[in-house]
Design a protein that fits this description.
about 475 residues; alpha/beta; 22 strands; binds iron/sulfur cluster
């Protein structure tokens, strides 16, 4: 479902330059021209996934063995299948409705859960579970039940644990809703993208408004009350007026949270995007106006803007966490998840343990081979250094709240803050343009420049090669 989950550095392009507090377009345009071509990560991890290298199963097993029982644990399960292909898709997903193939993947997940169980010495409590893809429900209600049951046999779940999954409203039937409710799911993220018929046809994702509305109603009636909607701007035939209408129609469904992503056109990496009418793609200025229009509608309706791309009702835990400075950023984007450790299960899934990151094989054949051989199917990863941890915290604070005080981070982590300096060369232009204000210890991105948060974060990234082609454009 998601265009961002499970891939580490996702293929979501940020060409936005607008803001929600009325910075004038001339300034925004100038900034876009100045910074628009820079390639910067979305910082869902630090170091970011392109800097992962080979990690062997023995090292990962040692990391799992060392996990303490009193840690707070988060689980991410990746289901890399969908019913049909959306032509804008940037995910690594496989299109299939072959039940045998889907059941086989469920079995592999169950085997992987057993392998993780075997590696653990202690079993921390799960505070957060997220199923992403692809389309998690592709393995069916029965498959999801088996995975949930297996996880509950291995791990204790906190009574107030958040159990969330991504859903494609076109594939949500009553039986699935009942299963999700019975298994304790508390939150669902529904992919909407755009309500406009012409846009939907152009992206090969025809999803009538009624279908989305009925799914929302059924989920709420079943007690799954946490609802997120995902919107995309920058799609073929989309206009500012359509985006405004998308926002209004979304608001009519009263979601708790919305994520608003910019479409990334990368046909060199995702060949199926060539099926989209390229000449109907909006240009940078139109994209900016589209994001600004959505932003304006949501903020005017009382939603709080969270970082780059999220919006939440003011009483939602995400808005409260942003206000309190306790918001986090992980592979799912912005999150209230307070976990100390994350275990990823399934192809491409990334875990984050105190010692470092671990990512599973991306190719099904490699994943299957490892699991069937009784080995943890880890392929890549990266141990984290003390400096990485400090810079990760700095980057998280910038991405979540637009500000960081280096002395505070130094105190929090018990290290000398003078070694956490940013790259002056990268920062100088941002400071000159007013995108970052600083007294040398405290760094802040004014709200009107939050669309450029990634650039401010990048100033603290010691691994970044700004010329690298693997990250998306800054604005
Ligand atoms: S094909 Fe569509 S539903 Fe599947 S992951 Fe891609 S965007 Fe989501």
């Amino acid at each position: 479902m998601s265009i961002i989950r499970g891939l580490g550095e996702p293929l979501v392009e940020w060409r936005i330059l607008a803001n929600d507090e009325g910075a004038d377009m001339a300034t925004s345009t100038a900034l876009a021209l100045r910074y628009g071509e820079q390639k910067v990560p979305r910082y869902t991890s630090y170091p970011t996934a392109p800097h992962f290298h080979e990690l062997n199963a023995r090292t990962y097993r040692q990391w799992l063995e060392a996990l303490q029982g009193d840690a707070r644990l988060s689980l991410y399960i990746h289901i890399p299948f969908c019913n049909e292909l959306c032509w804008y898709c940037g995910c690594a997903t496989t299109i299939t409705q072959n039940r045998t193939r889907l059941d086989a993947y469920t079995h592999l997940l169950l085997d992987e859960i057993r392998l993780v169980d075997r590696a653990l010495t202690e079993r921390p409590e799960v505070v957060h579970l997220h199923l992403g893809g692809g389309t998690p429900s592709a393995i069916g209600g029965a498959g999801l039940s088996r995975v949930l049951d297996a996880l509950r046999q291995v791990f204790p779940f906190a009574p107030n644990a958040e159990l969330a999954l991504e859903l494609d409203p076109r594939t949500v039937e009553d039986a699935l809703v009942k299963t999700l409710a019975a298994k304790g799911f508390t939150r669902a993220s529904l992919g909407v993208q755009s309500f406009d018929d012409r846009v939907q046809k152009a992206i090969n994702r025809v999803q009538p408004e009624d279908v989305t509305r009925a799914t929302v109603t059924r989920l709420r009636a079943a007690g799954i009350r946490g609802l997120n909607l995902d919107l995309i701007y920058g799609l073929p035939h989309q206009t500012e007026a359509i985006c405004r209408d998308d926002a209004r129609k979304s608001l009519a469904l009263a979601p708790d949270r919305l994520a608003v992503f910019g479409y990334a056109h990368v046909p060199q990496m995702r060949k199926h995007q060539l099926l989209l009418p390229e000449d109907a793609l909006p240009d940078s200025l139109e994209r900016a106006a589209q994001f600004e229009a959505i932003c304006e509608e949501l903020v005017d309706a009382g939603y709080v803007r969270i970082g780059l791309d999220h919006f939440a009702r003011p009483d939602d835990p995400m808005a409260l966490a942003a206000e309190a400075g306790t918001l986090h950023r992980n592979f799912q984007g912005y999150t209230t998840d307070p976990a100390d450790a994350l275990i990823g299960l399934g192809t491409t899934a990334i875990g984050s343990l105190p010692q470092g990151y671990a990512q599973n094989h991306a190719h099904m054949s490699d994943y299957r081979k490892a699991v069937l051989a009784g080995e943890l199917p880890v392929a890549k990863g990266r141990p984290v250094t003390v400096d990485d941890l400090a810079r990760r915290r700095i980057i998280e604070l910038i991405m979540c709240g637009g500000a960081v005080d280096l002395d505070d981070v130094g105190r929090e982590l018990g290290l000398d803050a003078t070694r956490l300096a940013p790259n002056d060369e990268r920062l100088a232009g941002l400071v000159a343009d007013g995108v970052v204000t600083t007294d040398g210890r405290h760094y802040e991105v004014p709200r009107e420049h939050w669309s450029l948060l990634r650039l401010a974060a990048a100033a603290f990234d010691t691994y970044l090669d700004l010329g690298a082609d693997r990250h998306s454009r800054a604005v």
